[in-house]
Amino acid sequence: MTRTITAARVANLVGPLRTEDRPLYVALAEQLRLLIGEGRIPAATRLPSERELTAALGVSRTTVTRAYAELRERDYAASRRGSGTVTRLPLRAESVTDRVFAPWSQDPDVIDLNCAAPSAPAGVAAAYDSAVRELPAYLSSHGYYPAGLPRLQAAIARLYDERGLPTSPEQVIVTAGALGGAAIIAQALTAPGDRVVVEDPVYPNATQALGHRSARLVPAPVDPGGWDVPATAAIVRQAAPRLAYLVPDFQNPTGSLMPDAQREEYAAALRRARVVPVVDEAHQALALDGQEMPAPFASYLPGTVTIGSASKQFWGGLRLGWLRVPEAMVPQLLHSRMSLDLGAPLVEQLALLHLLEHRHEVWATNRARLRAQRAALLDRLVEQLPEWEFVRPGGGLAVWCRLPLPRASALVAEAERRGVVVAAGRVFAVEGGLEHHVRIPWTRPVDDLEAAVDRLREAWDVVAHGRARDGGAADRLTVA
């Protein structure tokens, strides 16, 4: 189906055109190309007529005509008889999808809600353009930065300073994603047989990274209502773990946010037991209700190792993360890091530096998009599946739903037959179970989310009445 977009909306998205040393039509075509690539003007959208856009932008008809011709030349638009100029993406589906964790991704009718990661927000393409322009200044060097590009280390340190946690650039280690950071921590701070306390349910890829040296994972329960800190303190005393991995900011998958009082109590329990906290802040920048966020966990326990990520707040394709490390641990963690790799890619570090410098603008547009998608998803769930229970998260990227019956695996299989892929609770369970739960991200466009819930309603009707076919869905890699 072909969408339409008004000339006024296009003009608003395009904004002021900066010509610099290029013709005006090139600047317009380039801005339209970015808007199409980022999805703010979706593919298969009919652009306004040349006359309408000329009036909305206050430019000449020739400028718009040549800009549209440039889009067609670069395969970002096509002319259709009776439909005008319609946007498109130049790459085929198989060129931009991955068969490892999403073997269904080439099917345009499948709605993938297994991966809780959104498409790139506005500003990512500009960040890469800026990075490429800066790159020549670094080409005369070897290009290795095991701790990270110094300018980027300083920019990340300032993020913590702004949150009330004084941090020096030397405490920051830039990594190849948050999981790369978790692997460095495991390599440096654990030995085979060491125990690591982890939340249950929990983001599975992180625990796999932490346990890759044969560490023993000890589950501590968490639910959408929050953490039972006294119970967790008792588990810590009994297990005598080396590390404790926790996600206090919009916990994945429950969406829980740990308040300051609990952070202080939890930190005190870990201090008494001499346990190193590993705090994953991947979702920290995704507060969607304008709420004031609690202080960083490391404010209450200076020995905390904090994991940060560019994937959730900017874009998964950036593949960068970082560690904020107590000063005394820096040499140990850097030594571990250099046994795994010699540093993150330089172009990506320059792009992330640009994004951090423009973070407030990028975050604002991204949060607005995620708020609208969250509202659409939760409203549709209440309308179509009122018997399902959930606590409305104040941020993050997904909702943790409790089903009336322990049939999550059967639901996932039936939903996949209807073209919707979701993650069953067992994926996030440390020791199995959680058949009452599924995780549903709000990271797809509104139309997709509403259609997905409608299909889930159909699948649940089949499962709840015992009419599901034999055979479950295959276990899928959950990447976010």
Let me know the number of strands. Answer: 17
Structural class: alpha/beta
Arrangement of strands in the largest sheet = 6-13-12-11-10-7-8-9
User: How many helical elements?
Assistant: 16
Q: Output the radius of gyration.
A: 24 Å
Oligomer: single chain
Helix content: 40-55%
Tell the overall outline. Answer: globular
The biggest sheet amounts to: 8 strands, mixed
Q: Give unreliable regions as ranges.
A: 93-101
Instruction: Report how far apart the termini are.
Output: 30 Å
Average predicted local confidence, pLDDT: 89
Task: Kindly describe this structure.
- Helix content is 40%, strand content 14%.
- The protein is an alpha/beta fold and 480 residues long.
- Strand 10 (243-246), helix 11 (260-273) and strand 11 form a beta-alpha-beta unit.
- Helix 8 runs parallel beside helix 9 (204-210).
- It starts with a strand and ends in a 16-residue tail after the last helix.
- Mean pLDDT is 89; it is low at 93-101.
